[in-house]
Amino acid sequence: MLTSSFAPKTAVDRLMLPLDVPTIGEAETLVAATEGKVGVYKIGMELQFAGGLEFARELAKAGKKVFLDVKLHDIDNTIQKAVQNIAKMGMTFMTVHAYPKTMRAAVKGLTAEGNPNLCILGVTVLTSMDEADLQAAGYRGPVSELVEARARDARDAGIGGIVCAATEAGRMRQTLGTDMVIVTPGIRPAGSAANDQRRVMTPLDAIKAGSDYLVVGRPISQAPDPGAAAGAVVQEIETALNT
């Protein structure tokens, strides 16, 4: 059982919904449509550049858990100072790329702010990438080996968790033990289109594989009834937890 202070308590807690829409108005509509059926709202780059940072603050002030998906990767001082500022925003989760120096700098920034209730997640390998993509980028070896190496680096750096594909979650749980969070994007309910995701899994299988939090985007946000779609994912998570 996960022992992290960021461990989810309910099936709803485990569902992360990306607010990947072009305007704040559309994000507000999506939040209202999924009220009570989503545990964490994720704000990525698309919305960040359309007023999303202030919107993230507003959501946090309203009592929502917010995942600021910034994927930071820069020189140490920049990372440290950026994390110090993010730590003041009331976010629950944030991301950095899982490079050792980047993660260590992020931990320094968090520590400088008194270790607030913020979980830093290291992004291992994007779920839109496969073996061919890694080879094109100059990496050698299977995706799983690179994910595991970066997960070990994340553990050694002392951050709160990692982001990886659900197909790797079971192995990463063995690597990380029970005190780090595993967040898995690329979750697609049965029958949903994979879109640009490569390493995908259903919500039920992802939970059984060892994922703590599931990032489910377009199958919910582009559904005719996003609230019903989110509820169906939560029910599938509940089924996985009880079997």
TrEMBL record:
<feature type="binding site">
    <location>
        <position position="20"/>
    </location>
    <ligand>
        <name>substrate</name>
    </ligand>
</feature>
<feature type="binding site">
    <location>
        <begin position="69"/>
        <end position="78"/>
    </location>
    <ligand>
        <name>substrate</name>
    </ligand>
</feature>
<dbReference type="InterPro" id="IPR013785">
    <property type="entry name" value="Aldolase_TIM"/>
</dbReference>
<dbReference type="InterPro" id="IPR011060">
    <property type="entry name" value="RibuloseP-bd_barrel"/>
</dbReference>
<feature type="binding site">
    <location>
        <position position="42"/>
    </location>
    <ligand>
        <name>substrate</name>
    </ligand>
</feature>
<dbReference type="Pfam" id="PF00215">
    <property type="entry name" value="OMPdecase"/>
</dbReference>
<dbReference type="InterPro" id="IPR047596">
    <property type="entry name" value="OMPdecase_bac"/>
</dbReference>
<feature type="binding site">
    <location>
        <position position="127"/>
    </location>
    <ligand>
        <name>substrate</name>
    </ligand>
</feature>
<comment type="similarity">
    <text>Belongs to the OMP decarboxylase family. Type 1 subfamily.</text>
</comment>
<feature type="binding site">
    <location>
        <position position="197"/>
    </location>
    <ligand>
        <name>substrate</name>
    </ligand>
</feature>
<protein>
    <recommendedName>
        <fullName>Orotidine 5'-phosphate decarboxylase</fullName>
        <ecNumber>4.1.1.23</ecNumber>
    </recommendedName>
</protein>
<comment type="pathway">
    <text>Pyrimidine metabolism; UMP biosynthesis via de novo pathway; UMP from orotate: step 2/2.</text>
</comment>
<keyword id="KW-0456">Lyase</keyword>
<feature type="binding site">
    <location>
        <position position="218"/>
    </location>
    <ligand>
        <name>substrate</name>
    </ligand>
</feature>
<feature type="active site" description="Proton donor">
    <location>
        <position position="71"/>
    </location>
</feature>
<feature type="binding site">
    <location>
        <position position="217"/>
    </location>
    <ligand>
        <name>substrate</name>
    </ligand>
</feature>
<comment type="subunit">
    <text>Homodimer.</text>
</comment>
<comment type="function">
    <text>Catalyzes the decarboxylation of orotidine 5'-monophosphate (OMP) to uridine 5'-monophosphate (UMP).</text>
</comment>
<dbReference type="InterPro" id="IPR001754">
    <property type="entry name" value="OMPdeCOase_dom"/>
</dbReference>
<dbReference type="InterPro" id="IPR018089">
    <property type="entry name" value="OMPdecase_AS"/>
</dbReference>
<feature type="binding site">
    <location>
        <position position="188"/>
    </location>
    <ligand>
        <name>substrate</name>
    </ligand>
</feature>
<dbReference type="InterPro" id="IPR014732">
    <property type="entry name" value="OMPdecase"/>
</dbReference>
<keyword id="KW-0665">Pyrimidine biosynthesis</keyword>
<keyword id="KW-0210">Decarboxylase</keyword>
<feature type="domain" description="Orotidine 5'-phosphate decarboxylase">
    <location>
        <begin position="14"/>
        <end position="233"/>
    </location>
</feature>
